[in-house]
Amino acid sequence: MPRKIGFNVVYATSEEERHSSLELNVHGPTVRGWQSARRCGYPQELILRLQGPAKITRIQVLAHQYLIPEKLEIWTTREENASVNTAFNYLGYITLSDNESTLYKSRELKSVALPETEANSLKLRLHKPHQNSHNVHEQVGLIAINIIGEPFGHDQADAPYNPHYTSPYDDLAFEMYVDREVAKIIRQMEAKKLQAAEEERFEYASKLKVAMEILRKAGERLGKYELEKKYAIALEDYDKAKAKKAQAQQYRQEVYESLEVEDLLELNGPLEKNNISSVDGQEPTAACTSNTTGVPEDILSPPRLVVPPGRDGAISPTGPAHQPPVSPLHQKPHSPEITESPSNGVIERHNSRNTGSLKRKTKSAGPSLKSSYEAYEERTIPALRHSHTNEFTRECHLDSSDIKINSKLNDREKKQAALPITVFGMEMVEKFYSKQFTDKEEGLMMLKDELKKFDPEVSKHSANKTARATILLLHRALRDKVFSVYSLAAQLIRIFFSEFATNRVSSAEIARSVDRLLPELLTKSGDTTPRIHNMAVHTILSMADCPCVRELHIIPVHLSRPVSSSTHQRLALSRLEMVEQLILNHGISTDKQRYCHCCSGLTCRTLSELGSSGLHHPAEAVRKVSERILVLVYKVNPRLVRKQLPPDDDITRRNLLYRQLFHEFDLIDLQRKKELESNQKSTVTPTRTKSIDNNVSNLTKSPSRSSPVHVSTESSTSVTSPSENSGDYKGDKPCIFCLSKDQAYSEEGLNIHYWRSCPMLTRCESCKQVVEISHLNSHLLNECDQRNSYVKCDTCKLAVLEKCFPEHSKDEQCRKPIEGYSRCPLCHILVNQNKWRDHLMGESPCTNNPRNKFSKSCTKSPSKSQILSGKITSPTGRDY
Description:
Layout: E1 3-4, E2 7-12, E3 34-35, E4 44-63, E5 71-77, E6 89-95, E7 109-126, E8 141-151, H1 172-175, H2 180-198, H3 202-234, H4 238-259, H5 261-265, H6 297-300, E9 348-350, H7 373-376, H8 390-399, H9 411-416, H10 418-424, H11 426-432, H12 437-452, H13 463-478, H14 483-500, H15 507-525, H16 530-545, H17 547-550, H18 554-559, H19 569-586, H20 604-614, H21 620-634, H22 638-644, H23 650-653, H24 656-682, H25 684-692, H26 694-699, E10 710-711, H27 722-725, H28 747-756, E11 761-763, E12 770-772, H29 776-782, E13 790-792, E14 799-801, H30 805-809, E15 821-823, E16 830-832, H31 836-841, H32 864-867
Antiparallel strand pairs: 1-8, 2-4, 3-8, 4-7, 4-8, 5-6, 5-7, 7-9, 10-12, 11-12, 13-14, 15-16
Helix pairs in contact: 2-3, 3-4, 8-10, 10-11, 10-13, 11-12, 12-14, 13-14, 13-15, 14-16, 15-16, 16-19, 19-21, 20-21, 21-24
């Protein structure tokens, strides 16, 4: 099964003296990580040699909090002793956040799923860093690297083999914050637990499960003690370091004894007492009185730190407000965000795994925990342990630890509103938590004034921090049942995004704000009360119009998800009507524009899927809006719309809905056909002039060359519709590229001709798409799926594989072309840009063109109007 794979760093381009690359070989709370040398060159490279050949499935990277590279590339090789001169295979790359939204206090953990790759070594290439005020020496750094996969020849006898199971205790988020010795014991118990379940020793497996959870919490505490000891050593406070060491040793011994770790591991063979439930027949020991959650009393009450005589006070081992400050290097990071998988690589991102939470004790476990506010301060809040507000909440506790405020909020509300209290004060926040709607209205007006007068140069809180506190309060007000409060909250949301957030708040923070508010607004948009529904719809569309939100494409993604037949009618209808309004306001984007900031984010593909799903909804109003959306998309890309619908035949047209829809399509096709015919007539005179006057032909390109024609269904924007087939275009057709006069093709024969024999076309060896030979270079550089592997030669202007570029530059044929001429991508001969047909199909056709035997039957080049004709959109009617 996939597990952690050990490695050693054998090469680093550079390193700082106190942050050697060897730091990456081990994981634990005290590791410092690797940092490049100051003012180094880029890219920086690290070579990791695995402890043996393995099939790698995942790699995890924990970035530095401010020495962050913009991009990290991943390479692998099967060579055993890889070095700098070894040839590595490129897998892909990942990008890292600039961390500005967290004020450079948190670290990003990226978990990257790789295609199953056999490797002996890995190479990581780090590009230049994100610029920030903390990175004064322009360095990059990594705190830890973790590799997960299946080693070859590994003995799996220690646990049942399961290729789909990855242990949570091999995750980097676990290893970096748990004591190393405890982590090793937990992994041994994990293997014992799986083996016990296989052997149906369920009591033993249950005991191991409880013990592992307890050990994990104890390991986190021991790791914290180790950090505090290291920090005391750095301050040369050796008495405190000695006391911390003794405290950790005492706590470790008590935990091991209370859990009877040696007996649970069964180092000397199976023990019968592990198969007996302590409730059924065995008296629990005094040191191991466990409750139903398996938390011993000793772990809930760890030993206090013994302070040597002569020192003032004592340091509590728990609670962020009582422990000494920890250096930024050892701050625990947030869980990384998941957005999406990059479109141009093999890498996908995942959230780090939640490592659990403390459970509440039952009455049978003895005396209960303290329930006061101070008692909760002594442990991590489970709900906030991995939330994005964790760092802000901790900062709020530190800022307000010495301030005692008597308020109307209970302990739970104080914790929930810790950030808004720090930013806006207790007086305003109390109004949002009041039971009187007048107080809530007054609180919203106060918040509006705060946002209006916000000045980043004067305010002591950053715009991101203020924005996050504002959204917490607005989300609460938005859920209020009183319409006046809800209306004011919706109005303030529009003001927030249109006035406050623009050019102040980071994109990541705006995305979090939209993700928090949008689900609540979508729920309100399906409300039966018209004024609540209209207010929600108006607010969502106003948010979508704001430039800072529009460029992120978050709202279109949420709204354009397909609807199911079980979706409530009002919710489905509201979503579809909002999508229709966004199409009318912002337009439709193509697939190539989907990540462009200026486009709408509504692509033809997603809208086609949404419209076709709405056609199957039981509500007639939903079906009608879906029909209108499909008609709008059909005007842009008919092929994708028809691909989502049943075939256009007599059986389908018996359905009234499809009959009306296809009738609308036929009208659009007829209008498009008339426009194309008028354009074709307008191009006759320029074509004749060009054939007569050679001087004009040297200055004017052929209409058919004004834009590259790719014989691919994805690049086309029109399809052969039933209305066209039923008219003048029935019967056999000539090839519109080579215009073979001696043969007319049926629809199927024409497709075969395009794919196999047309001498004007060729198949791209990289993406297997059929393209015009004259535009093969442009295709390889700009549109091919493998375009990142090609570079443009500045001398001969040809597209060359990047790995073959050094040899190409030495070739004698690599010469600068004459003006008005281009090099043939097949034979590299200079060809007049207006005489490609003569070169490919003339008396002496291109020697490297395998299709040139068909050129003798062709006479002239196709015109632009022929290329754009609805008849030739796709040679085969399918994607290649």
